[in-house]
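Sorry to interrupt, but I need a hand with the structure work. Leave the record below and I will have a look:
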Amino acid sequence: MHVQVISSVNEAQADRFTHRTAIVIDVLRAASTIVAALQAGASGIYSVETVLEARALQRPSDLLAGERFCRKIPGFDLGNSPDEFTSEAVMGRRIILTTTTGTRALHKAARADHLLAGSLLNAAACSRAALELRRDIVLLCSGSHDEFALEDGLCAGAIVANLQAGSPSGLEMDDFAAAMLSLYNNASGRIYETLAASATGKRLIKLGMSRDVRHCAQLDSSEIIPRMQGDMIVRG
């Protein structure tokens, strides 16, 4: 089994996902929010790229959620903070989500045979699911502002570590995957501190969202595996 890691959505090309399992990573915060929403009982999540598309898809019972430049979109029901997605708010509801980068990355990976959403919260669970699907694996780090984001690389490394541990026959990886594995091995005891020191983490903390950073740093706290089924992300 071969694993490759793509550094940011800007580096993603559609043909790199064909006949593979893709795990789209956006630790701060889209993938973490998707995990939280499904954990809280949301029926599914539509990932869209624009605010206009989100509004056009909305049905009376749907919730609009998302952010631009880390802030909740005006007029939307929810932002992009995992703690907003409580069972009281989302149980049984369909969510239409648009974010600055994470939802773009999900669309970039749409040609994959299987598409999962990964974060630190569900890194081990995502790894197990990907191994069971028996395809070569592509990890797409969403990044921030079309550039590599440290927190996504850290999560990619955690997933690679789990894939390696679960592959008795051996795992082939590209150079960037090997680099992210080294990053994770060096920082695995300082997950929150690494997120807080990242450019995105610093931005969120400055905006008063340190609670989001702490939430997203909870390694392997969830068994939820968000999986694309048709056009909707559901609990896999």
